[in-house]
């Protein structure tokens, strides 16, 4: 072994240890009076939950007390100021119970009662660093946070950079981690962790479902990525070169067949975060999605690159097995907008002029709230002003934009997935 390889291995071990220590420190710092800060930040008071569910406070209060007495839900936490804290987990249990018991007529409907079919959104662009990961994560959290709709959201990281693992604070040490690629290539790779699970008697479906990580939001799960996922591209290119198709199926169908079709009844919305590349793993995302969101930073070079990417997209879709026929919409969102910079404004105007109604009205501003949030494994939606981690102005600017973007995405999804009866 040459010296440099040895040195890099030592460096690698130190970096690994540093990442683990950092995550542990953040998790420890996050414990506030025995309650995880992020869990606390998303907790609602009785009146907030009543408002969210469209019920009178006294009606909800007696329903909750009754459910606690019957042991159907655990007792509600109380903060130091005696305010009741309904954690999101609690809120979802209550929402489920209200809907299943039918004792109280609910005006607000669950997302799944009003929409049919799985909405799967691919967040993609050939340009690197345009805010894909930030858009995918904020959208996933924003969509999952609505307590009355109780959307079941799955975030799938298709980018071997694996950033979602770092944002979502999942504990990689406790559990075996399988990625979308591990599940896609499962029966093609001998001696893999996947194969050991099969040998131990687990079915593919069981393995897929067990591979989804819990996050800080109860109805948001994550299928993470890992640098080794890059091997999918080598595998796929070889298949393409050999011209041999696995059992008649194209390799780009594996994500849909081996992962998404397996969990499609457990989720309402799937969001794919992708790498800034044009390769078979990204094509698999196009094949498995029915919506594409293209984030583009309001910078001249970014817009030039995204323009070229959009020009090539229809040809790419047509080459895929489904020929892009399942794709209901491709929409562009402007990111990292700097309202005090005329150049940023100029690019935004050009984008709007060219993209027309395929452009989201919401523009995601450049804000250090995004950077601060990422550094503590969160999104801006997971931060409270009272934490004073970022200025109120910056936090408001980012959360207002995310919420407005989430509303727009919901509207566009509703126009395609609303139940007809
Ligand atoms: N609106 C924003 N304001 C400020 N910083 C942002 C914003 N959006 C993203 N960032 C930061 O810019 C960097 C790139 O963003 P992000 O990782 O989302 O881009 P990406 O398109 O996913 O990159 P890649 O192509 O490498 O996957 C990150 O450090 C992120 O925290
Ligand atoms: Mg990314």
Explain the overall architecture.
This protein is 49% helix and 12% strand. It is an alpha/beta fold and 421 residues long. It has 3 domains: 3-32; 36-108, Multidrug-efflux Transporter Regulator, Chain: A, Domain 2 (Orthogonal Bundle); 112-417, P-loop containing nucleotide triphosphate hydrolases (Rossmann fold), CATH 3.40.50.300. The strands form 3 sheets. Strands 7-8-6-9-5-10-11-12 form an 8-stranded mixed β-sheet, with helices on both faces. Strands 1-2 form a two-stranded antiparallel ribbon. Strands 3-4 form a two-stranded antiparallel sheet. Helix 7 crosses helix 18 (392-417) and helix 13 (254-263) packs across helix 14. The longest helix is centred in the N-terminal third of the chain and has 27 residues, at 3-29. It is globular, with a radius of gyration of 22 Å. The mean pLDDT is 89. It binds adenosine-5'-triphosphate and magnesium ion. Magnesium ion (MG) binds at residues 132-133, 159, 163, 273.
Care to give the gist of this entry?
Residues 121-301 form the AAA domain. With 421 residues, the protein is of the alpha/beta class. Helix content is 49%, strand content 12%.
